[in-house]
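(Deposited chain)
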Amino acid sequence: MPGLSRAVLLWLFERLLAAYGPQEWWPADSPFEVMTGAVLTQNTAWTNVEKALKNLKANQALDPLVITGSADETLAGWLRPSGYFNVKARRLKAFCSWYLQEGGEEALGRLDTPELRSRILAVHGIGPETADDILLYAFDRPVFVIDAYTRRLLDRMALPGGDLPYEQLRIALEKALGPDLALYNEFHALIVIHGKERCRVKPRCHGCPLINRCLMPKMPR
């Protein structure tokens, strides 16, 4: 498979940035809130996660000690807006227990990125995308987050890699772009907003900033 082109990827980034502006991600008041949001955003829209986070804050429960000490039914009730709330309550408790056992943000922040990533991935219910959200947005590590929007964008831009396994695609993108925390942060956020606004499963091509390169207008409908 031919490699991903840095020049083309940066062209995409610049076009998306010009169209949508800086996204200033991740929307949170603390690194722990980022981590909590990353766990809760699995299989749901961010607007639903915001409601669950609001519930936690209203109950002074956006804290790993409070979360681990809460009854399962109580925590699930707070998380209800995020969907799959019983499953997410168990996953969030498991994450918070691990977080406390590891010594919290300060201790974890002293680990190098591969070790920290390995430890996060060992937590029950945490997959690569969630782990990389946490690494990038809570711990400021240059790790590129791969999601469905990223794969769809690569496919529609006729770029290689959209069908690669997660780890291979992540490494390919990081190799092409070089280790750039600010770029990874903004690029992922822009891909997400573009995927929500334009590049949906059923795309909204009119006014798309990438229309001149995209395959979709050329495909039969």
